[in-house]
Amino acid sequence: xxKSTRKKYRIPSARLPxxxxxSNASYFITICTGKMKCYFGDIVEGKMIxxxxxxxxxxxxxxxxxxxxxxNLELDEFQVMPNHFHGIIHIGQNKxxxxxxxxxxxxxxxxxxxxxxxxxxxxxxxxxxxxxAIYPFEPTNITKPNKYGPQRKNLSSIIRGxxxxxxxxxxxxxPTFRWxxxxxxxxxxxxxxLRNIRQYIRNNPANWLNAEQNHKSLKKNIK
Length: 223
What we know:
This protein is an alpha+beta fold. It has one domain (3-221): Transposase IS200-like (Alpha-Beta Plaits, 2-Layer Sandwich), CATH 3.30.70. Helix content is 28%, strand content 19%. The protein contains seven helices and six strands; from the N terminus they run αβββααββααβαα. The protein has helices spanning 3-6, 52-62, 64-67, 124-127, 155-170, 191-203, 211-221, and strands at 25-33, 41-44, 47-50, 73-80, 84-91, 179-188. It has a four-stranded antiparallel β-sheet with strand order 4-5-1-6, sandwiched between helices. Strand 2 (41-44) and strand 3 (47-50) form a beta hairpin. Helix 2 runs antiparallel to helix 5. It starts with a helix and ends with a helix.
């Protein structure tokens, strides 16, 4: 990654005050490797070629649904990049957030067009023109102060578990592997933002050398 673009990912997770990050909502997350080292592979002619560690990062993300079946999760577009990971994850209505859920909002399912054989996992190739699946960004989800203590059954616990699993497996191949301590998240507020973020993720490998311009374009199109 060009030096001019390295700092843009080195930002703390911008937690929305009083938002419950276990709420049923859709989130765009970015996680970076330590010192932005390219552990996960290389971009060749605009395509991501995964290393062994990159394959681990991909497979552990796909295991998220298996590990947390009680959270009604759905994985959407994602991309392992040489030194970071982008993904969209939907947290559905479940027994841990049902008291905060908006009345009448049903739990999310994988029956919409564009899902593959794995329950809840979006197939980017077939879903790109489908109606985006998204949980509503509602004031009713802003119910209690965001927790900065022990995190469970929320976005932080999901990412912590993912990072831990990737670290454990990756260090069997490369003992130097590490992540940056924090991750960046963005609450997706409407269907258009979801479409824009999906497109941004898909285009990431092709735009690797123009990452700064690509990132600025995304910021203009999401809210």
